Amino acid sequence: MKPSMGKIIGLTGDEAIAYAVKQCNVDVVAAYPITPQTIMVEAFSQYVHDGEVDTEFICVESEHSAMSACIGASLVGARVFTATASQGLALMHEMLYAASGLRCPIVMGIANRALSAPLNIHCDHSDMMGSRDSCWVQIYAENAQEAYDWIIQAFKIAEDPRVLLPVAVNIDGFILSHSMEGVNTLEDDEVKGFLSTRKADLKVDPDKPITVGAVCLPDYYFEVKRQQVEAMKEASEVIREVNKAFEALTGRRYSLIDTYGVEDAEAAIMCLGSTAGTAKAVARKLREEGLKVGVIKPWVYRPFPTEEIVKATKGLKALAVLDRACSFGAPYGALCSDVASALYSSGKTTKIFNGIYGLGGRDMTPSQVEDIFKDALKAAETGVVEEPVKFIGVRE
Amino acid sequence: MVALKELTTEELFTSGHRLCAGCGAGTNMRMALKALRGPTIIVNATGCVEVASTIYPYTAWKVSWVHVTFENAAAVASGIEAAYKALRKRGAYDKHVDIIAIGGDGGTFDIGLQALSGALERGHDFLYICYDNEAYMNTGIQRSGATPHGASTTTSPAGKKIPGKPEFKKDLIGICAAHGIEYVATASPAYWNDYITKVRKGLEVEGPAVVHVFSPCPLGQRFDPSESIKVARLAVQTRYWPVYEVENGKYKLNIKVRKPKPVIEFLKIQRRFRHLFQPQFKHELDAIQRWVDENWRRITRLCGEEIP
User: Fold this and answer.
1) Which of A278, A299, B226, B256 to pair with A338, CA 20 to 30 A apart?
2) Residue A32 lies in a domain
3) Nearest CA in chain B to A102
4) B41: nearest CB among A74, A102, A206
5) Does residue A2 surpass a pLDDT of 80?
6) Residue A6: band (very low, low, confident or very high) from pLDDT cuts 50, 70, 90
7) Alpha-carbon dihedral angle through residues A54, A55, A61, A63, given to the nearest 10 degrees
8) Facing A61 at nearest CB: one of B85, B90, B117
């Protein structure tokens, strides 16, 4: 393994994504500004206006048109990127399904933010969770480094002929989007070597006329959706392959899930995004005190890493699954529901409970995380879950 | 203007599609494709033409054709245009590609207006054709921003109290021309050489162009399928549908209707206006005639013409 000789650059999460996109030789970016994604489009505009990229940047008049333009560009064989957050993703919602249904390998950066009403510009995952079933590959980064690394991998995953699905790379709004870190970057040539120019075997070509986006009535629609199910399944294996290739280039290991200390843990916390960093820090402290706790962080939320999660929870007696979004009226938040399904169908009896936290950007403090670990350890010891859904840090 | 013998005999919009008998939109599509000049991609908004011409696994289009959703044909076209700029830069495609976005009046006047405005403002090199049958015909004749005053639709029915649509038609050309684009025009399939010439002109312009073509609809405007072109011709001859163009901001009247027929000639053969011919709604017919006269004066004035 030959680690990359790229520079370490101070970048916010948004800037890290823009920098990665700059290196990925993207043909078209169509995007609309929205807090806390704005820095991505601002930084990228600067690259365009300074002549650092050849990309056609379309400053569209809405997120709906952003995704529409991305779909058009992607269908004719271009490599395409966009970025948004919150209301923007909600406005795009219709087009997310069109993008995946038309098998457009678009990559999108999302700076996760709460949905109105009431208006709130801070982090939670209700935006992406609201579009959970749109057949996008969904990745959550823990920090700016991961955001940078996943963007580069995302194009390779999306454009793989076995997948041909769009990929969303999520970063926590403000917590990651606006926080600066040292990011290990690759040289431009290294990215170019890793990610060749998009080769679209199937595309809209004016010289070989085809019809794309025809009406599919009950006699064909179902088969189209069934193929998307298969593509999503294939994506798991493609992601594993791309992760291996990326590790060979950078020395940085990625997978469908990230784990910390679960090998000998009795209780663990599972969560997405930046909160996993806090959870790992707290787990480290508790482990030093002799408590057997661990952390599971799905990097990839769709396709859901059932196999990896079942394996990672093998020795666990209790698991606290944290959701940064409500699924109103559902038994649990979305992540916890998925975990419960995965564990149930594998016959596991690990005790699980759900913590809903951080809505509208409310902080999740280390002491709160510590309390959750202790609740999980208690459930592991007694075999009893006292409260199946806890709301963390809210005035009741 | 293009002459009949100059037109290609090749049919790029083929028969076998499932548009209604007498549908003007099908005629409009067939004619528009006679104006093509090279590699072309069509972006079709959801609507009559789209659903009736591409029921999987069939297609009536012999040119590359894309449908994404209803309100975004202009935005999809923007993306395609930008993509070809990028592909040319990296040597992946070297020819010019003509991009035509097509939408009905619902997809253009109403739900697609924002996407159209955005694309016009950004200056993408594409042609937008609005085939205007003056209501949401695909979903079963609901009123749109293009439906004329008094017309009965399923959401502006001829009621006992309110006789059809109270509002007047939106000025699409005025809105498009206000973007300062190089070419905007109206057309009618009854004047095929004017229409086809305008489609070609719209393609030749470097930048956005809009052609707004009247689309007779036997089912929704309610007339015999054999009378589509007659309706389209009467629309022009009554001055209901002035045929003009705006080139680099300069208005030009293409069809000078010197001896107009009264607008009731156009109204009376369409059953969507039938209720207005009851004596108590005489004032509505007068109101439509006044609108036609005023609109004609406004447009001829813009064209620098005096045709009373």
Assistant:
1) A278
2) yes
3) B68
4) A206
5) no
6) confident
7) -160
8) B117
- Whether A232 and A130 map to the same domain: the answer is yes
Do B56 and A216 make contact, defined as CB atoms within 8 angstroms? yes
Minimum-distance CB partner of B54 among A73, A209, A214: A214
Q: What is the pTM of this model?
A: 0.98
A32: nearest CA partner in chain B: B118
Question: In percent, how much of chain A has pLDDT > 70?
Answer: 99
Contact check, Cβ <8 Å, A212/B65: yes
Domains and CATH numbers, chain B: 4-302 (3.40.50.970)
Using the Cβ of A184 and the Cβ atoms of chain B, whether some distance falls under 8 Å is answered with no
Which residue type, as a one-letter code, is found at position A91?
L
User: How many other C-beta atoms are found inside a 10 Å radius of the C-beta of residue A154?
Assistant: 28
Length of chain B: 308
Reply yes or no: is the peptide bond before residue A118 cis, omega within 30 of 0. Answer: yes
Q: Does the pLDDT of residue A3 top 80, yes or no?
A: no
Q: Which residue has the tokens 């678009």?
A: A106
- The maximal CA–CA distance of chain A, rounded, in angstroms, is 69
Tens digits of residue pLDDT in A63-97: 999 999 999 999 999 999 999 999 999 999 999 99
Same domain, A329 and A198: no
d(CA A24, CA A86): 25
Which residues are CB-neighbours of A112 under 8 A, at least 6 positions away? A85, A86, A123, A124, A125, A127, A128, A170, A171, A172, A173, A273, A324
Residue A291 contacts B, CB cutoff 8 Å: no
Same domain, A223 and A311: no
Give how many domains chain A has, as a whole number. 2
A61 and A162 within one domain: yes
